[in-house]
């Protein structure tokens, strides 16, 4: 049987934190042995939120070195920067003509972004069509999606089906299947157990970045919010004690353990004792990653060459596909 082609894009939006790592990235790393993994830095998409040349360039480069440092292997997978294969924008235009405005207007992520103060320009509006082009240009069979991206994948499936039907070419555009993310480790802010850990939260104390050093990690965990009770005795208690739940969840992810085991391990103990163990586990995990990130960023020519290899592979597939698509529509 042919291997699944799993495709995912990551926006280069600045420093990565452990929430990103335990979410999407760790899954991608697991996929690279069992599938034909395609992974790109979605810098065209970032133009919807960043309009500063230096920032966009720097973030794109950093995102790429982060992925490598975390364990994505460019020999096993195809890793590239979205804008280096510009055919995807040509496809976006073509696909726009098979996209219902009504469906686009129902996009909750668009509505959320506008509600959060982003100005509703056309880029932000047509963002999901570009995402569909990313997926369809490379014949992806599967796309990992969290809750926020499910609707975008649905739209992509609709577009592909409409294109295939209109031109009477069954299965020409590969209709992708979602790989639904298990909610195994949603990491929350260290300052508020009800909010997701996020790069956009003002206080850096709310997150552990993959470039934080030992002292910083210890300090952030020391200052992480808890409650006045000793460590919880049962899983049930965690429903009411979100900060304890989050810290225990992080500890469980780091030690590949279950939440149940971690609760048992520290039941009734002081937070300070647990926090010390948590800091140690975090430092063990993150120090090698931050060292690797620094090493990669110092070796620009290695990064450039690695980037080129990925783009070449991506390009072979993209240029064949866009050529066929243009013939089909009559260009
Ligand atoms: N929209 C995705 C996000 O913000 C990034 C992305 C762009 C993507 N193109 C994609 C993800 C194609 C999966 C497939 O997280």
Protein model, in words:
By secondary structure, this protein is mainly alpha-helical. The chain has 13 helices and five strands. It is globular and about 70 Å long. Tryptophan is lined by residues 7-9, 11, 42, 45, 131, 134-135, 143, 149.
Task: Describe the largest sheet.
Answer: 3 strands, parallel
Instruction: Report the helical percentage.
Output: 55-70%
- The class by helix and strand makeup works out as mainly alpha
As residue ranges, the low-confidence spans are none
Query: Strands of the biggest beta sheet: in what spatial order?
Result: 1-2-3
Query: How much is the average pLDDT?
Result: 93
Q: Can you list the ligands bound to this structure?
A: tryptophan
Straight-line N-to-C gap = 35 Å
Taken in chain order, the helices and strands follow as EHEHHEHHHHEHEHHHHH
Overall 3D form: globular
Tally of contiguous helical segments: 13
Strand elements, count: 5
Calculate Rg over CA atoms.
Answer: 21 Å
DSSP strand (E) fraction? 5-15%
